């Protein structure tokens, strides 16, 4: 299985312990992540003082996806707190410090079958994007320059999810892109 394997000289990370998201309906979330995506529910708890709930789902490789349910959480605002659409279908911008999307690594030889399986379960999936270094950074066809294949879909709360598979080894970026700064933004920060 092809995956990046850079060495961290500062900290020995072995993956993501968990990422924590917020849902509006824990029962729908449990149904989607266990019955649609097949992720076992491994821990669930009520927060102290009627503060909500916190559930953990096994995403494989020792990694978990967790959800909070808060009784007073505000609703999602598409285009601000999350993308208004999924890549390949519409606008993907979201606000600073929000989760734009969550990508799950899947085996390349099962990629197309997994996409069809989601469709068969009634999940609306976006087009396959073959990410490459072309002007638009995606191709409708798989070719030698493609480094990752993916498609996107949403959970019941509109959280953008992605199934992705690496198609080539990363050997180091010959031409690094210069990182942008806050000064490069076209929108003023809210104060």
TrEMBL record:
It comes from [Mycobacterium] crassicus. It holds the Pfam family Glyoxalase. Residues 15-166 form the VOC domain. This is VOC family protein. SUPFAM superfamilies: Glyoxalase/Bleomycin resistance protein/Dihydroxybiphenyl dioxygenase (SSF54593). InterPro entries: Glyas_Bleomycin-R_OHBP_Dase (IPR029068), Glyas_Fos-R_dOase_dom (IPR004360), GlyoxalaseI/FosfomycinResist (IPR050383), VOC_core (IPR037523).
